[in-house]
Amino acid sequence: MVTAREPKQDRSRATRLRLLEATIASLADQGWSATTVGVVAEKAGVSRGATQHHFPTREDLITAALDYMFDTRMDDARRESTALPPGLARTEAVVERLVEYYTGPTFKAALQVWTAAAADPEMRARV
Length: 127
Description:
Layout: H1 8-30, H2 37-44, H3 48-54, H4 58-81, H5 88-103, H6 105-119, H7 121-126
């Protein structure tokens, strides 16, 4: 039986996405100090070597995750803004989304990075 293999480029993108999402989850759940390349690789189900192939340093990984968080959040906001109800329900929907944005794991992860960058000149330059 012949099976279609996923093209290498698609597998690479999927691996990269798993690493970024694992980084965000680790930052939100465990914080800056505990979010290491090894922890992220394990959480993503990827070898440490494959992780470092995509992101040579911890700073590269975390900076890419921050960019991914921003891009994802902007895409979500654009998409959700077109589906808002009219009138007072619109205001309620906007407020609910803002609360979700500022209490969810994406914001918690970003906050970890921003806080660390305040004390680390190299990360501050990247952020």
